[in-house]
Amino acid sequence: MRVESCRKCGTELEIRQNCSVCKEPKKFECKNCKVETDEQIHSICRLVDMNYTPTISEVA
Ligand SMILES: [Zn+2]
Ligand SMILES: [Zn+2]
To answer: 42: burial class by Cβ within 10 Å (0-12, 13-18, 19+)?
Structure first.
């Protein structure tokens, strides 16, 4: 997992929200600037979320 840093001040961002599908963080907040970043779009996860079919084929 890549840790994002603030584009303004470079502070490491805090995770605000995790993707419900892949559990990767998709929304961050800079504690220093008190701003939330834009939500990262997981196009694949959105597809999975929309027509959710449990599959464990990709789990190692
Ligand atoms: Zn995702
Ligand atoms: Zn910042």
So the answer is: middle
% of the chain at pLDDT higher than 90 = 52
Tell me if the pTM is above 0.70. Answer: no
- Indicate if the alpha-carbon torsion angle 55, 23, 49, 42 is positive or negative: negative
Which bound ligand lies closest to the C-alpha atom of 26? Answer: 1
* CA angle 57–43–39, rounded 5-degree value: 120
Q: Domain 1-55: which topology?
A: N-terminal domain of TfIIb (2.20.25)
Which ligand is nearest the CA of 21, by number? 1
